[in-house]
Structure to design on (405 residues):
């Protein structure tokens, strides 16, 4: 097969991922992409920023397991990207495992994996339950609450602060910075978030160098990789980036599924299924990080006869790939519940190293909520819920509910 080269200048042919039309109904958008472009789709991440979106499961596995042809280092690409580009903070080079090529990646990966794997899972479970109890004690008198902001975000951010040994005041600044960075539709917000985040994580590194503890930050500092302060700060940026917004949205999106799928809710209450199965169902159909796993081929790369341009981002749509008809053809509608063949933790050398604590936090948060508040109803029709626009996430603007008195 003769490779064909996408035309980077052909903006009208590119699918726009940053507008509300896409966030309102992404599954319809993926179906149109597949019909028009196949598994490799020319897209625009923000105005003037072209990329290739992979929505084929098989093609994604090929790319994710080939870091030589598809390294994660964006430094050549970002030389042509304005500093105020709203997606740049989510994509630019940092000295960490997520943004390093094969030469540097193993060192950063080893430090992160060792620091995360040493987490006491029983202690983490107790911590999350304590945070849940405090959050619900404040919510119960209110009756009408936003479970995304007042519960899911609180659980995710405070749990991560505990894991990383981060005091509440620094953690609040880190959380605010991460929220601004994920707001890829607003250049000023993303730039401000990047600055706030850098200052806050630097304070955390300095604190734990002076006062070590039993936490991930201290274990990173003590690792034989000998990370310097700059490298340490960027490891923490990665951990917070993966551990607040996506985790909060996983919790909220799973609660939404339980509230809007009567069949699943009945099976859950009858003990025929589990919260873990609900989490995997969301990770399969609508993962909170809908698109990421970015690589930057240093040379034109042929994938199934399509020549992907050098130094142009290649992004994996976890949602698109998980719902690829080649993967799901012939499966019953409920087959994704409890199915872990999804790519929502990525695959290959960049597979998420924090899957175990992430599952634990999300499952504990949802289970505790359902046990404490068995009667929860949406405060508005599901059709009125709004999804935040943006190329990377699948995130509600809010999750308003009423709690029983």
């Amino acid at each position: 097969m003769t490779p064909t080269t996408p035309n980077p200048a052909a903006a009208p042919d590119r699918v726009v991922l940053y507008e509300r039309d896409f966030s309102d109904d992404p599954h319809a958008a993926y179906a149109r992409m597949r019909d028009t472009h196949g598994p490799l789709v020319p897209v625009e991440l923000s105005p003037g920023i072209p990329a290739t979106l992979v929505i084929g499961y098989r093609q994604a596995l090929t790319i994710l397991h080939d870091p030589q042809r598809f390294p994660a280092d964006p430094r050549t690409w970002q030389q042509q990207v304005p500093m105020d580009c709203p997606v740049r903070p989510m994509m630019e080079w940092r000295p960490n495992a997520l943004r390093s090529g094969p030469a540097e990646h193993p060192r950063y990966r080893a430090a992160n994996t060792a620091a995360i794997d040493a987490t006491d899972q029983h202690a983490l479970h107790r911590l999350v339950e304590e945070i849940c109890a405090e959050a619900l004690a404040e919510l119960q008198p209110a009756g009408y609450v936003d479970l995304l902001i007042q519960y899911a975000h609180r659980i995710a951010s405070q749990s991560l602060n505990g894991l990383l040994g981060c005091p509440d005041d620094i953690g609040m600044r880190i959380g605010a910075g991460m929220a601004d960075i994920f707001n890829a539709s607003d250049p000023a917000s993303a730039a401000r978030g990047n600055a706030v985040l850098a200052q806050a994580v630097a304070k955390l590194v300095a604190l734990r160098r002076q006062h070590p503890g039993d936490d991930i930050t201290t274990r990173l500092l003590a690792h034989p990789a000998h990370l310097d302060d700059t490298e340490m700060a960027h490891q923490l940026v990665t951990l917070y980036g993966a551990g607040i917004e996506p985790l909060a949205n996983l919790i909220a999106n799973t609660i939404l599924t339980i509230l809007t799928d009567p069949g699943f809710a009945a099976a859950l209450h009858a003990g025929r299924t589990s919260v873990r199965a609900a989490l995997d169902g969301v990770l399969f159909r609508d993962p909170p990080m809908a698109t990421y796993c970015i690589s930057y081929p240093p040379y034109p790369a042929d994938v199934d006869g399509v020549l992907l341009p050098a130094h142009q981002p290649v992004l994996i749509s976890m949602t698109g790939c998980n719902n690829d008809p080649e993967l799901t053809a012939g499966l019953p509608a409920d087959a994704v519940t409890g199915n872990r063949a999804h790519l929502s933790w990525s695959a290959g050398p960049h597979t998420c190293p924090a899957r175990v604590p992430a599952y634990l936090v999300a499952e504990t948060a949802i289970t505790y909520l359902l046990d404490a508040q068995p009667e929860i109803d949406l405060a508005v029709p599901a059709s009125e819920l709004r999804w935040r626009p943006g190329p990377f996430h699948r995130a509600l603007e809010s999750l308003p509910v009423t709690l029983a008195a």
In short: DSSP finds 18 helices and ten strands in the chain.
